[in-house]
Write a structure and sequence with these properties.
Order of helices and strands: HHEEEHHEEEHEEEEEEEEEEEEEEEEE
Structural class: mainly beta
Strand content: over 45%
Helix content: under 10%
Oligomer: single chain
Radius of gyration: 23 Å
Shape: globular
Largest sheet: 18 strands, antiparallel, barrel
Length: 470
């Protein structure tokens, strides 16, 4: 008899493929811009960092409190409830989330946006027991999410405040999207707009012809937010010859001009090719574990180091397919070594991460994205935690729409091509009334506890979402 989680995954796949077959038999009607128009949007100069254009006015006028130009309100409320189907089976999440945004135009060249995000997860009150630091980190949170002022004049744009800066376009993973820190408390299972943490920054843009230049300065630092040990998606700690490891407090660099981050990106549009090159002098957003202590137990100290990186992206539409590629070269990144003879448990190596993929809409029936992933650590050795000399992977994303796109099956599959390490995420969305959206889905992991995805092999879950947008 199949285990419950595998039977549920098989049932979800059967439902999804049945929906896909129905969509293939009945191509959906176009609702909005056509496929070619959406593909062409990728090649716009600012496609990688969309920003609503300011509408020019003949002359500035005083805005009243309820003016649509001065004040626009929007947002959503959402409940997400999850049940762990891997043993020990239990409710793992019942999060209620509020997102509220206000934006508007202050003058001909100035606009603003401010948003609030708050959540309460009731699981930490009626299930458990949970450790105090787990409840404190995952039960209740709220505060300013984004808050920035925009200036636009001719070919010049500037944004000052707490913001997201998007340099990558991959689906389901992060590659060239390296500027903002990430909220990893739910691993990669949240929407990317919630995983990517807004940071206080000054960003400028300038365009001339087919050339577009961006630069960014980040004086206030932020780092990836991992959940504490004992949480549902807490990362597995490395093991050194079976010796126990105690986790010390995370050590972060202080804010200040000397520790600030700075970078730039140059984009060129030439004969349908959208090409970009960027350089970022930053800190490693992800932590690395140093260790100390000759007798047991070992003490692991989460640290962050300076990390200069260079990257490039491209996109090109040809024959109805939008081809994309991203590559990032890390100069002197620190890794955790598993060899106990390595002093401090850290080694410094250069690394390369690259993604090549394409988007298409076969027969106008569904959208598909296929990506090939490669990660290489140069001068590999000794054995490194969650790393190998060269890693090859692939991802597949499928989505279609039925009944005027009110019913949308979606599937994401990510896997290592050399060893057992994968993630499968089937979903089914249903929208109605212009404001409501319900989602049923499943998150399945397979692999060893020493692998990036397989470490959550015992966290497979089914979940339901209900969202009201306004």
């Amino acid at each position: 008899m199949l285990p419950l989680r595998r039977a549920a995954a098989l049932a979800a796949l059967l439902i999804w493929t049945g929906s896909l077959g129905l969509a293939w038999a009945r191509p959906r009607k176009s609702s909005g811009p056509g496929r070619k128009a959406r593909a062409a949007a990728v090649r716009r100069k600012k496609a990688s960092h969309p920003r609503p254009p300011l509408q020019p006015r003949a002359a500035p006028r005083l805005a009243t409190r309820w003016s649509r130009q001065w004040l626009r309100l929007g947002g959503y409320v959402k409940n997400k409830t999850a049940y762990r189907v891997a043993r020990p089976r239990d409710w793992s999440q019942s999060q209620n989330l509020l997102y509220l945004a206000v934006s508007g135009d202050l003058a001909k060249s100035f606009s603003y946006k401010a948003s609030l995000k708050a959540f309460y997860d009731s699981v930490y009150d009626w299930r458990g027991p949970y450790a105090r630091d787990v409840r404190r980190d995952l039960r209740l949170e709220g505060g300013l999410w984004e808050g920035y002022l925009d200036f636009s004049e001719g070919n010049w744009d500037a944004r000052i405040g707490k913001q997201q800066i998007v340099w990558g376009e991959t689906v389901g993973i992060f590659a060239a999207d390296v500027v903002n820190a990430r909220d990893m408390r739910e691993f990669l299972l949240q929407d990317f707009g919630l995983i990517r943490v807004p940071q206080w920054a000054v960003q400028g843009e300038a365009s001339k012809g087919a050339t577009h230049l961006e630069w960014v300065w980040i004086p206030i630092l932020a780092f990836n937010h991992f959940p504490p040990q004992g949480a549902e998606f807490a990362p597995v700690l490395p093991s050194v010859q079976g010796r126990p490891i105690e986790l010390a407090a995370e050590q972060k660099p202080k804010d200040g001009f000397k520790n600030s981050e700075i970078g730039g990106r140059l984009s060129v549009l030439a004969e349908g090719w959208d090409l970009s090159l960027f350089q970022l002098y930053a800190w490693d957003k992800s932590l690395v574990l140093s260790r100390e202590g000759a007798p047991s137990p070992l003490v692991a100290i989460p640290l962050h180091h300076r990390l200069p990186l260079t990257g490039a992206t491209f996109s090109k539409e040809r024959g109805g397919v939008v081809y994309r590629g991203e590559a990032v070269y890390y100069h002197g990144k620190y890794f955790s070594a598993l060899d106990p003879s390595v002093a401090s448990g850290l080694v410094r190596r250069d690394a390369l991460e690259a993604v090549l993929g394409g988007n298409a809409s076969p027969w106008q029936a569904f959208d598909v994205n296929l990506q090939v992933l490669h990660r290489k650590v140069f001068n590999y050795g000794p054995a490194l935690f969650h790393e190998e000399p060269a890693r090859f992977g692939a991802s597949l994303w499928l989505k279609t729409g039925l009944f005027d796109d009110s019913l949308e099956p979606e599937l994401l599959f990510v896997s290592n091509l050399k060893r057992k390490d994968m993630m499968l995420r089937p979903k089914l969305h249903y929208s109605w009334g212009g404001h409501w959206r319900a989602t049923l889905g499943m998150d399945v992991f397979e692999g060893s506890r020493t692998e990036p995805l397989g470490q959550f092999d015992s966290k497979d879950r089914i979940y339901a979402e209900l969202k009201y947008s306004f």
